[in-house]
Structure formats: C-alpha cells, structure tokens
Task: structure prediction
Amino acid sequence: MDIKQLIRRKELLDLKNIDISNKEWLYMLGEETRNSVAIEGVFVSEKDLEAVIAHNTEEGNVKVEIINYFRAAQFIYDFALTYRNSKEKPHYLHIIRTLHSQLHKNVDVHDPIGDFRKSSVQITNTRITPPFDASEWTGFFLEYIDYALYNFDIHQAIARIHTLFESIHPFSDGNGRVGRLFMNFVLITKGYVNICIKGLNKQERNRYYNALEKADTGIEEMFKADNCSFNTKTSFIEKVDFSLMEEIIYNAMLEAMNRCIIMHIDEKHIMTVPQLATLLGITETAVKKRIKSGNLIASKMGTGQWKVYPQLEWEI
Result:
C-alpha cells in the first residue's frame, strides 16, 4: 500500500466541481447502499435499487432501511463537501447523531433516536464486549478522530476510526451503517471520496468481519482500563492488528477515486486497454497488471470494459 497513490489521485480530484446529483455519482451511492445494507443482512435487487435512485420507491417492495441509507448518504455527503470546501472542522457528534436519526426514519426503535446506549449489547460476528455505558466513551472517540487523522496516513486513520466506532457500538441498533456513513463523511471532508465496503457475498462480508475481529483483543483491554489517560488508551489501540482493515480501506479508496477521476475527466483523455498497450509498446496483460497495482487510473464504470486515464503512468 502506497500512500502516494492516494495523494496523487486526491490532487487530480476537484471536489468543488462534484455534484452528488450527477447520474454516475448517484450510481456510486447506490452501489455503496446495496453493499452496506447487505453487510447488515438486508439484500436489495438491482431493480429495487434503481427505483430508490430514481426516487420512485413504489416500484418494487423496497425496504425502508435501503431508502433511509441512500437518502442519508445523499444528505450527509453533500454536507461533507460543504465542510471540505469551507475548511471548517465538522461537529462530529452532531453528524453521528444526525446519521442515526436519518437511518431510523419510519422505523420502530426501542431507544430514543440519536441517544447513546446505556445498557449491555452483543456485537454480531465479533468476540468483543462493548462498554456497558457507551456515552462514557464518546468523548474519547471524538478526540481520537483528530489524533488518528494527524498521526496516520488517511487509510490507516480511517481503519482505526471505523474500527473503534464499531467496537464502542454507541447505539443499540444501526452502528454498522452509521459507522460506514460516518467513515465516508470524514473521507470527503479530507478531500477524498466515499468508498464502498463490499458485502454482497459471504466471502466479502466475512473479510470485513475478520478485519473488525482482529481488533478485539487490544480494544477489549482498553475498555477494561477505562480510567487511564488518553495516551494510555491510544497505546492499547496500537496493539491492534489493523492490517486487513487498512487493506480493505486502501483498495476501496483506490477504486472509488479512480471511478470519480474517470467520471470527470474529458473523454478525449481516456483510452482503452488496447489503445494504451499500443501507445506504450506493451501487452494488454501488462497494462492490466499496472491497473491492478495502482500505477494506472482506470475504472470499468459498470460497463465491463476498462477506461484508462494514462497521465499517472506517464508521470511516475
């Protein structure tokens, strides 16, 4: 994983010109929605997802969780772009509460929407026991966001922030969806784009669960030592193996940023794999290897055929 690959793509992006009502952007939000709710065990057909994107939710039996996620993503990412462009620091607590509220519109819940949990809870697919009173850990989490963003490369920081949020499990319900939306909110405020954590098949979901589970031991120890200082708590977190979560975040960032760059670059600068192979005097297989390694910016844009922006290759 090479942070230079992410930084170079960030430099090529101009988020000031991004419009989340753009058809391609809406498609990206749809794919994110479909994968994120699948991680929670809610599955949606492409037809129903298209109905949500078109705001024609009467077509098909679209579940409220899907509608809420898609609309929450639209709202909060537009908000994130505003923060990014103004350079203001977001009010993270307000964002987290708002996300929980947006995700639970027209949904029956036991606890008040936006309130942090003050009872025990068990996280599915992990061994960790979250703190009994999640509100006691909220302050530490909010402080840790800035700490992680300052001290680590962006994919490393996001891996830590997301994992800690899911481990604290601040709400009685909806933590996974809130956590993934919040992760993307932070990415956009930092000049990157929202990513899609894959979860449509069991292998993808298990990989994500395993990445979270690798954090169990170190963070569990931190919860048991809750009266210690901020520095001591962060030292517990650094015992955690974040390698798999970092890899998931990094690869998702490359894929999302490639797509956005291809989406906004003038078509005359885009090439096919055969065209670039001929230009560089190499095989098509060699071109695809460079795409896989991140040395080329390319995306299939949902078409099955690679579209390549060769500028990064030429400048390396």
The chain has a mean pLDDT of 86.
